[in-house]
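Supplementary Note 3. Input sequence used for the single-chain structure prediction.
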Amino acid sequence: MNAFLKACLTAVFGFALAMQANAAEPIKIGSVLSVTGPAAFLGDPELKTLRLYIEKINKEGGVLGRPLELVHYDDGSDANNANSFGKRLIESDKVDFLIGGTTTGATMSMAPLADRAGIPFISLAGGVVIVEPVKKWLFKTPHTDRMAAERVFQHMKKQGLTNIALLSETSGFGQSGKKESEAAAAKMGITLVANETYGPKDTDMSPQLTKIRGTAGVQALFVFGLGQGPAIVNKNAKMLGLKMPIYHAHGVASEEFIKLSEGAAEGVRLPAAALLVAAKLPDSDPQKPVALGYAKAYSERYKEDISTFGGHAYDALMILVGAIKRANGVDKAKVRDEIEQTKGFIGADGTFTMSPTDHLGLDLSAFRMLEVKNNDWALID
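The predicted structure, written as discrete structure tokens, is reproduced below.
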């Protein structure tokens, strides 16, 4: 068979697969994300990623010969809205599976709905409460707040920083992060000499930072929040001339965070997925081709910088698709079992190996320590 004929047959076969997928009943994936509101820079890339890869999968023939259909609602960064939209997805839209919950609060407001309906639900939020204790129908892809606290404190101790000020947001993510940071500090020999909070809609954290600056013995600041708040902290800290090292949690792991900080993020450190420094990974790193592939596809489609948040959505979708294929259908109980049996899946967030006692499947090695250098992310550990 000559090359031309082979190419023609391949094209015809691909077209036939696409036509078959388009004619079959769709597999409906319901999603509630924070595309507007304070958490928009998390939810926006999540939605774009789902749309990008669902379109790509459908062009390649769908899943088991069926197209994927995304049914999406924007909760406006409001957990109450997430609950209402979750009900609509389950009761009215009759979705097969759920991916979403940009924030911990939104996820936890929808979790009981998924549990009662018996629908596999993969969250894109960070709180450890999502998977501890394990909930039968609920899984997640982002690293947890506990992991973030432990990774940050691990790095701090290497730098000889043991007297820390914690500044956390009063959102679900921040509250859970505060609790996990306090527990990790006690376990790892870190002393919290100051422990302040701020609201997710606050526009000035100078009072808290002034108090922290005046605290005797404080060596470093750890900020646990998401959205625009942590960027405001950076700007306020620069304005006040705060000289101590500043660490953030993974809720701000994106290029947008650097931009929002308006030049005040230089030297800031945080734990994040390898995705943010994909091109800087060694060629031997198994995540490099996955991260580079995602980064290329996303940036070419949307003409904008990638973020780890889009990576969470990529991992969730691919884990779900893999489970549907292994279950050979959309039986919810069988797909749930297959998600739980995910083994060695290399994604944007790390290598996932789930089990009946672990509905995340990542360990601390999935976190890389990054620092902002010359307005860009640099791998430091």
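The first strand starts at residue 27 and ends at 33. The chain has two domains: 3-143+288-366, 145-272.
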